[in-house]
Design a protein that fits this description.
This protein is α/β, with parallel strands linked by helices. The protein is about 30% helix and about 25% strand. The chain is built from 15 helices and 22 strands. β12 (about 235-245) and β13 form a beta hairpin.
């Protein structure tokens, strides 16, 4: 049996990072993956969704080209179905046709042993991959997550897509019913609506993006409705049944019905820990399926087992997975690094995007913090006028006792970029007085920070 310094289960962004990092430093690493090297992000998630959103936004801008001064008369656009085909072609080129050959070749060239198949822990220190068994000094579980399939009566009798399928299928359905108002559901809704698809988004909670500030979530709902998405909040699907013409009919909790060509399941994802043989090393996941880890990303109760990425249930984003992977890699190489999750940005890549980081006002109050908040209307910025944009709001949350920023949330053009200012401020505990003295270039959206920061700093006097 071949024994490796590190065996990594799962070749998503976290697993690829760890295995490559160990090999780069001269260690022996095996990477076990049944599907694609790189995980879902490059092939059926992050990259294809952002590609489709960009194409939809470009089409929206083209419709307003005369208004923006880019043409003397409205341009003639082709049919939605033709434009959708062009967008799909671009999407598939950017995602490499969902072929991981280049990624697999790259990781092998770095010295990693790539094993194709499903890994299962056989006993402490050994993993089985099909008929092959390999040994490890340290094991890293980075198996990611899987779509949650909601227990809805009649689900199996109607045409459905997971988000992965919605971002890889070539066809443009006439209508969609999207279940779930998280980031994935919102992004898919705007992307498809941008090509003339009739989209209804149903979210059982009273707001989109459940853990974010309700004011920002309401702004996002306004954005989606402005993109011709029918947003239904506070209702759920109680039953699905086939309808004429291959359609799906959904009965909602408010006794209304919705018919659609496809039902998209975007109600969330669950850590992929089933079938890994964790019981062989005495590890029991949480009720949600996540692996409990210490701040150093070591699995609780284990000396040589680590976890990174969605499987931990802590920061379910690609950038969060990469962060945890850096922590694990450093510790496997003899370091003593711990993760700090106070400033992990959360983004919904609609147009304009929703971006947030740190604590909301409600979360801070629940934690017993003496909270101060201040807001800015991004739509009133000079840059918003020149860019012809309307939506926008920034909310800042501060700890009065410590005099530092602890949270920020925004909906506004390019907010996914300028939220980084708040991210650094929260992570580095920059004093409010310093932040209030920062000069931003004119005209930029980042100027939105200036007035609320000065307001918060003044309250400390």
């Amino acid at each position: 049996m071949q024994v490796f310094d590190v065996v990594v289960l799962g070749a998503g962004s976290a697993g690829e990072w760890v295995a490559g990092g160990i090999a780069d430093e001269g260690g022996s690493a095996a990477l076990v993956e049944a599907l694609r090297v790189g995980g879902e992000c490059p092939y059926v998630a992050c990259i294809p969704s952002k590609a489709m959103l960009l194409s939809a936004h470009a089409r929206h801008q083209a419709r307003h080209l005369e208004e923006l001064g880019g043409a003397a008369a409205p341009p003639a656009l082709d049919e939605d179905r033709l434009a959708f085909g062009a967008a799909v072609g671009r999407r598939d080129r950017l995602s490499g046709g969902r072929d991981d050959s280049d990624a697999a070749s790259s990781i092998v060239k770095r010295g990693v042993t790539l094993l194709r198949g499903t890994g299962r822990i056989a006993r402490p220190g050994a993993v089985g991959v099909g008929a092959t068994q390999i040994g490890y000094r340290d094991l890293v579980v980075a198996t990611g997550s899987r779509p949650v399939i909601p227990p809805i009566d009649g689900l199996g009798a109607v045409p459905t897509w997971t988000s992965d399928q919605a971002l890889s299928a070539p066809e443009r359905p006439a209508s969609l019913l999207i279940l779930g108002g998280g980031a994935v559901g919102c992004e898919l809704a705007q992307a498809y609506a941008g090509f003339g698809v009739s989209v209804t988004l149903v979210e059982s909670a009273d707001q989109l993006i459940g853990n974010d500030d309700p004011r920002i979530a309401a702004d996002l709902a306004t954005v989606l409705r402005g993109s011709d998405v029918n947003v239904r909040l506070g209702v759920s699907v109680t039953r699905l049944e086939p309808a004429a013409g291959g359609m799906a009919r959904a009965l909602l909790s408010d006794r209304t019905t919705v018919e659609a060509s496809r039902v998209v399941l975007a109600v969330g994802r669950a850590p992929a820990t089933g079938g890994l043989g964790l019981e062989a090393i005495g590890v029991t996941p949480t009720e949600a399926g996540a692996l409990r880890v210490h701040d150093d990303c070591r699995v609780e109760g284990q000396e040589h087992v680590w976890a990174a990425g969605d499987v931990t249930g802590i920061v379910p984003y690609t950038h969060g997975a990469n962060y945890q992977a850096r922590v694990v890699t450093a510790n496997l190489l003899g370091g003593s690094r711990v993760a700090d999750y106070r400033a992990i940005p959360r983004i919904v890549y609609t147009e304009p995007p929703l971006a947030s980081v740190g604590l909301t006002e409600a979360q801070a109050r629940e934690a017993g913090i003496d909270v101060m908040t201040a807001t800015a209307d991004v739509s009133q910025m000079a840059r918003a006028a020149t860019d012809g944009t309307a939506a926008g709001r920034l909310i800042l949350t501060a700890d009065r006792a410590r005099g530092v920023l602890i949270g920020a949330a925004a909906v506004g053009p390019r907010a996914d970029d300028w939220i980084s200012e708040a991210t650094v401020a929260i992570r580095a505990c920059v004093p409010l007085a310093v932040l209030a003295d920062v000069v931003h270039p004119f005209p930029t959206y980042a100027q939105a920070y200036e007035v609320p920061l000065r307001e918060l700093a003044a309250r400390l006097r």
